[in-house]
């Protein structure tokens, strides 16, 4: 039986930077992403991060805003053949709410927790993000959170 490919997670901060050549972190993100792929690793993007990316790309101020069709096409062309789009079932949702309530966290941290859990459940051991401070306190055991 062949070994499973290594997997790495991406949050929306990385996906947006990867797809936006005007973004300050584009080049660094692109180089890192290409290195992961060249090493045989497979990207994992949680459903929430994918939809958040689409939302951000289509609501940015001009001249950076993409049309919905352009954003969809960029996401499909970049990830449809390579990435695992990860989700979470009801048990994961309840477990995540339990963890967040124990830590006294709400608001946007809810989505960070969902992203971290989804990438772990999909087999990723690393999460690439430009918001490491948001993920470090809530990262599941064994998940390395780092910038690209």
Strand fraction band? 5-15%
- The class by helix and strand makeup works out as alpha/beta
Helix and strand element order: EHHEHHEHHEHE
Number of strands: 5
Residues in helix, %: 40-55%
N-C termini distance: 31 Å
Written overview of the protein:
The chain is of the alpha/beta class. It has helices at 12-19, 26-38, 47-57, 68-79, 90-103, 109-121, 132-135; strands at 7-10, 42-46, 84-86, 126-128, 144-146. Strands 3-2-1-4-5 form a five-stranded parallel β-sheet. β4, α7 and β5 (144-146) form a beta-alpha-beta unit. α1 packs across α2. The protein is globular, with a radius of gyration of 15 Å. The N and C termini lie far apart (31 Å).
List keywords for this structure.
single chain, 148 residues, alpha/beta, five-stranded parallel β-sheet, 7 helices, 5 strands, 51% helix, globular
Please give a quick description of this structure.
51% of the residues lie in helices and 12% in strands.
Ordered list of secondary-structure elements with their pairings:
Elements: E1 7-10, H1 12-19, H2 26-38, E2 42-46, H3 47-57, H4 68-79, E3 84-86, H5 90-103, H6 109-121, E4 126-128, H7 132-135, E5 144-146
Parallel strand pairs: 1-2, 1-4, 2-3, 4-5
Helix pairs in contact: 1-2, 1-3, 5-6
């Amino acid at each position: 039986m062949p070994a499973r490919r290594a997997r790495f997670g991406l949050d929306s901060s990385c996906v947006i930077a990867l797809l936006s050549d005007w973004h300050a972190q584009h080049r660094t993100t692109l180089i890192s992403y290409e290195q992961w792929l060249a090493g045989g690793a497979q990207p994992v993007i949680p459903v929430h991060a994918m939809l958040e990316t689409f939302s951000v790309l289509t609501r940015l101020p001009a001249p950076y805003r993409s049309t919905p069709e352009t954003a969809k096409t960029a996401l499909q062309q970049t990830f449809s053949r390579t990435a695992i789009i990860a989700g979470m079932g009801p048990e994961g949702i309840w477990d995540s709410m339990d963890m967040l309530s124990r830590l006294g966290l709400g608001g946007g941290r809810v989505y960070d927790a969902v992203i971290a859990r989804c990438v772990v459940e999909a087999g990723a051991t690393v999460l690439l993000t430009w918001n490491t401070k948001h993920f470090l306190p809530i990262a599941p055991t064994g998940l390395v959170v780092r910038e690209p």
